[in-house]
Write a structure and sequence with these properties.
alpha+beta; SH3 type barrels
């Protein structure tokens, strides 16, 4: 797990948000953010300003590769399906792939 202060320009960062895997490249500390904000570049080359505490929370998830992010998302979805199945009178159809 990295600390925000260890990030270098170009480092890839993976996150799971709203059931999707998102990835960013670290660009720099925000020049006017007094060290509290950082700039990431998203997959569409759009800059994203993010608070250091939020960025550290993402880094704490320790998703180093796309494969690790895929597995973490699958685990999260599996837990959600189990919760739905445990609800009274709720049936989730099983779809075979």
């Amino acid at each position: 797990m990295k600390h925000v202060s260890e990030l270098k320009q170009g480092d890839k960062i993976y996150d799971i948000d709203s059931g999707q895997i998102k990835w960013y490249k670290y660009l720099c500390v925000h020049p006017t953010g007094q060290g509290k904000y950082h700039i990431l570049i998203g997959p569409n080359e759009e800059p994203v300003r993010i608070c250091g505490a939020t960025l550290q929370a993402i880094l704490n998830r320790n998703l180093q590769t796309r494969q690790e992010a895929d597995i973490a998302l699958a685990d999260k979805l599996e837990k959600y399906v189990k919760q739905l199945r445990n609800r009274a009178n709720y049936v989730v159809p099983i779809i075979e792939v």
